[in-house]
Amino acid sequence: MQKKFLLLSLVLPTLSLAAEGMWTMDNLPNNKLQAEYAYKPNAEWVKNTMLSSVKLPGCSGSFVSRDGLVMTNHHCASSCIEQLSTAKQNYIEHGFLAKKREEELTCPALELNRLEEITDVTEEIKKATAGLEDGKFKQAQNAISNRLTSACVGEDKEKTRCDIVDLYHGGRYHLYKYHRYADTRLVWAPEKAIAFFGGDPDNFNFPRYDLDITMLRVYEDGKPADIKYFFPFSKIGPQEGELTFVTGHPGSTQRQLTVSQLNSLRDIGLIDGLQHMAELRGVLTQYRKTSPEAARTADQMLFGIENSYKAGVGRLKTLLDPEFIARKEAEELALRQFVDARPELKGKIGGAWDAINKAQERYRQLHRITSMTEGAAAFSSNYFRIARTLVRAADEKVKASADRLPEFTDNRLAGVQQMLFSKAPIYPEFEKIKLTHSLTKMREDLGTDHVFVKQVLGKLSPEQLTEKLISKTRLADVEYRKTLWNGGKEAIVQSDDPFIKLALAIDTESRNASKRMQQEVQSVVQKNSELIAQARFLQSGTSVYPDATATLRLSYGEVKGWQLGERSIKPFTTFAGAFEHDTGTAPFALPASWLAAKNKLNLQQPYNFVTNNDIIGGNSGSPLINKNGEIVGLAFDGNIHSLGGAFWFDGRSNRTIAVHSAAILEAMDKIYNAQELLKELSSK
Amino acid sequence: MQKKFLLLSLVLPTLSLAAEGMWTMDNLPNNKLQAEYAYKPNAEWVKNTMLSSVKLPGCSGSFVSRDGLVMTNHHCASSCIEQLSTAKQNYIEHGFLAKKREEELTCPALELNRLEEITDVTEEIKKATAGLEDGKFKQAQNAISNRLTSACVGEDKEKTRCDIVDLYHGGRYHLYKYHRYADTRLVWAPEKAIAFFGGDPDNFNFPRYDLDITMLRVYEDGKPADIKYFFPFSKIGPQEGELTFVTGHPGSTQRQLTVSQLNSLRDIGLIDGLQHMAELRGVLTQYRKTSPEAARTADQMLFGIENSYKAGVGRLKTLLDPEFIARKEAEELALRQFVDARPELKGKIGGAWDAINKAQERYRQLHRITSMTEGAAAFSSNYFRIARTLVRAADEKVKASADRLPEFTDNRLAGVQQMLFSKAPIYPEFEKIKLTHSLTKMREDLGTDHVFVKQVLGKLSPEQLTEKLISKTRLADVEYRKTLWNGGKEAIVQSDDPFIKLALAIDTESRNASKRMQQEVQSVVQKNSELIAQARFLQSGTSVYPDATATLRLSYGEVKGWQLGERSIKPFTTFAGAFEHDTGTAPFALPASWLAAKNKLNLQQPYNFVTNNDIIGGNSGSPLINKNGEIVGLAFDGNIHSLGGAFWFDGRSNRTIAVHSAAILEAMDKIYNAQELLKELSSK
């Protein structure tokens, strides 16, 4: 053990740093780009890229026409496609194409955002929290954040959204202003069989053969939105070694966490989380086999779980990798020594790591009850989500915006209502599966005799309580939700809906759990992370990019395969490969449309490809663009080695997986006969 | 990090060592017992204890009458009870009592063993392997083991079993000779609802209210076996603080592994293993809901998984506990320093830890394919287990005993046949669930393009292959199995049974995988563990007990509650508590027999209790006996804190959970009206 740090420099191979980084639009790595690719994006290019990029919930997308056409992944739009499907008209299975604009279908609950403006508000926020500790610190930070975002949104709540973005774990705070598109419609989606060819077995793998694309259109005032900035399509796509950019919204990386934070993440977020996910995956896998309708209603959730599960397994692998751990410990030690060697820093910052470590111990004590109550892990059901929102809205709406829970401030209310009054169907049988399972896990995780378990279950079994709740609830009825929303606290208290009563009964305990976690963990971490961020700036300046925060980032890289032991993985696949991998059985069955079009297709057309762009979950649906700002590909996945990208960028093997732009055009033309769309894509 | 060892002595509380240890019958801790309890068992007591103790597969038991009556846990005999049940006559649900001997039901596949003799064969084995490396080492060890056990069994193969027992990880090798009882019959089992009251939620918890007992009887030559040594029942049971002994067969502890072995165990055995178990648990949980028959056929396996899962979660918790890790690292460091400081040891033993570490790296590379092939993890099905046994038997039976795979040596063949020709039912629908799932995991874990996956699946999906195999197999037919067994290699090669063909097709790859693992991992670990064991003997002699190895051990302790934060857990529960915890809904529903007998029962009768005896999985079914060799309880579980007992004994909270002897007698009398059995238990 004691020799670890001595050996470090001898045993660790140097990681390629080329292509590393998810850069904010106001701090691009121009010098690196110039040095490595003799290219420097000009202001117009940057502006066009920012304004053509779109944020979807948990995903990315881009404008691809003047008339509001948005390209993203099929798996990013599939909740909309699933909600629009019925047992008789299954667009997930058969795909969808609107031949005319009037045929485009409104997504029940899909909001898109486009970043318009970035303002540095670091000084305002730090001033508001200066000298405060724990609960007071977090309270003051929430208050100033609410004030700033409310002022930013102003009167135009329907079309504007503003967020405070915490960069470098408190090193910088920026105010991001978005144009909000609430009316999104489905234009084109291929069959899931080709969008997700290879299914879970091939997820995060390459070679791949997926047409993971969907086209949406945003409307404003009932008409296709008038869009000034968009990306044109490249008809030839990229060459091996060509410089590519990915613009999108990577969700979250943990490259700047302390070792003690990484350990909590390993034990709770990953080890414990994966066990829970695995069991639920088993439940859903077996449930979906009971009927085609069970499969149709459960598959969207199952996909999400399988995707997160595989990603989690990959991330955990990195957190258990001795090479990685040694590097992190060495980095942390170096930064601590940098601080300790400077008396002016030591007194102020030196204790930050231990403070965060202590907060992690508290987190380990609190996380389970907090997750069950405030996190609603005990109540996995859309009904409960709706009930809680209604119960809390009744308490929050009457307060001044700045005093509300963050999710109910003025600038968020439009989004809350869109979710709450969505006509997206709820399937009672499926809700029963989820709720029974989550109640059972609550009893298991907290223990039979826990006071919260007794409060929730009484003498009922999880099955009995589920039955009682779901058979009597009226929350499937959107009108009833509106009545409760408009009726305020009185309507809530008088409602005899069992989910409303449940959400009401546990609200105090939930809020208390959340408060405890905020005061004793999050505030401590936030405050001390700010200190560590300061130290890091002093050590290396802003030549470092901030951890991903589900905000717009640009990464650069090039088309490039990788080496797996003695095997060279080539960067491109072709249409021919898709036909070679067709077994006729899901998830390796090409859809009928492909089999029918085989003779018309150029089988040598490059289909999927890989680049060494630095991306992470949330980048799904990101366009790959070239120096000219043309779309050369559509990112839909990372390879298995990219999963550790949450914690470090290993350029030796971390790869982005994309659909080739020319393959998209060829498929639209020869397989899907989407001539109108093709015309729209090629018009300026 | 560097300060860890300096801080160690300051921050670690001293663990209570009292009661620690699972001692072999030939090396009892007499001095400790004398010092702590002023008691020293005499030779007669030890002999009686050894010869009254019984080994069941994965469990323990004891003789309790002259006529071969055996007491164990319900959950240790439940596979027999389940195999004897049908959809119409469900003994799991309703319990079973043979009012006369003729009504006792033969268990289809349950072999019991009683230890008769222990011989030290360390010298013979070490001589046979001296100077050999890797594959040669393991080969020589197998050969001498086969020779010794064959000689030990002699001609009486039906009634004798002999095993080489590896103690102290190669520090000692003993030859254990058992009397083998192959004809075991079911005498009495209460309803599962009371045997496993509280179900999985209360498993490993206390207070508890379980009557986890079953009575079996062993027969020889068609008559109840004539037994000389057995334990009489204590009618009053134990008092708080009273000295108690547990005699039984603890399966496996890992208290003497190196840190690198603990890390492999953490990552592969536990983290990876638990994820796989959790998913299968979800599958079975959902499957059992599809029909009562599905529940009946799946519940035995589901219980096993839930039990192992919870145990695994507890064990993992210890392996992630910084206090535990620091202690293990310190212990290892101390032993290494002890070796390095002695030139005569350093050259011979100093490299052992690094060699084991290197073998662990190889293990990480090999384990997945080995587990899928040789471990048959890809083919979870009783049909496959039977097919593989038949395929291998055909190859092995023609060899000399000493050259065979260990499981086919002469002394094991009777057991192999008992399993193979058992009439235990196989449920095709349930087999499909298991096999589909395991084939799916094979594809996921090895990858779609893996050569073994392609060999097994071809172009079929896991569902299609499962259907093809199970719809055509004849292996459910015991006569067909006999034909193949007797027909030898020719019958196997000519069989068109799809499972036989599958087992045959992958046998070379499986054997190769096993061989690689033996040569490159197991042999290296075995050889170097022997060296470390030598160092440990030199450091502390045999005052240390060996890790558990599923062989007979005695542990001592006393009836004692524990402290959980500010809460004192009392050591006894009562019958009254069981009625208080009855909710009427599984798993908290008392059976009708209990409700009917409530008025007759002494509700203040102590029911379950805890002691600080050191036990582990495999001890289920062990009797607790007092100084007089009388049964005062029946161990059926450990508390949640006992799970880390795999790696260390934490006397502060590690507890054994048992049924009180007087509660057993009271229930047999007042609830089950088992007067004949009671009479038998009280006769000398």
Explain how this protein is built.
The structure is a homodimer of 684-residue chains. Chain A has 684 residues and is of the alpha+beta class. Chain A has 26 helices and 20 strands. In chain A, the strands form four sheets. In chain A, strands 1, 2, 3, 4, 5, 9, 10 and 11 form an eight-stranded antiparallel sheet that branches. A seven-stranded antiparallel sheet of chain A has the order 13-12-18-19-20-17-16. In chain A, strands 6-8-7 form a three-stranded antiparallel sheet. The longest helix of chain A is centred in the C-terminal third of the chain and has 34 residues, at 507-540. Chain A is globular. The termini of chain A are far apart. Chain A binds chain B through residues 1-2, 4, 198, 200-202, 205, 267, 271, 274-276, 278-287, 290, 313, 316, 320, 329, 333, 433, 437, 443-444, 447-448, 459-461, 464, 583-586, 588, and chain B through 1-2, 4, 198, 200-202, 205, 267, 271, 274-276, 278-287, 290, 313, 316, 320, 329, 333, 433, 437, 443-444, 447-448, 459-461, 464, 583-586, 588.
Q: Briefly, what is this?
A:
The structure is a homodimer of 684-residue chains. Chain A has 684 residues and is α+β, with helices and mostly antiparallel strands.
Describe how the helices and strands are arranged.
The structure is a homodimer of 684-residue chains.
Chain A: H1 4-11, H2 30-37, H3 43-52, E1 53-56, E2 59-63, E3 69-72, H4 74-84, H5 91-94, E4 96-97, E5 105-106, E6 112-120, H6 122-129, H7 134-153, E7 160-167, E8 172-181, E9 183-189, H8 192-195, H9 199-202, E10 214-220, E11 223-224, E12 243-248, H10 259-287, H11 292-319, H12 322-340, H13 343-349, H14 352-372, H15 382-396, H16 410-420, H17 428-446, H18 451-457, H19 462-472, H20 478-494, H21 498-505, H22 507-540, E13 553-558, E14 562-564, E15 567-569, E16 572-574, H23 575-580, H24 592-597, E17 606-611, E18 623-625, E19 631-638, E20 656-660, H25 661-670, H26 675-682
Antiparallel strand pairs in A: 1-2, 2-3, 3-10, 4-9, 5-9, 6-8, 7-8, 9-10, 10-11, 12-13, 12-18, 14-15, 16-17, 17-20, 18-19, 19-20
Helix pairs in contact in A: 6-7, 7-22, 10-11, 10-14, 10-17, 14-22, 15-20, 15-21, 17-19
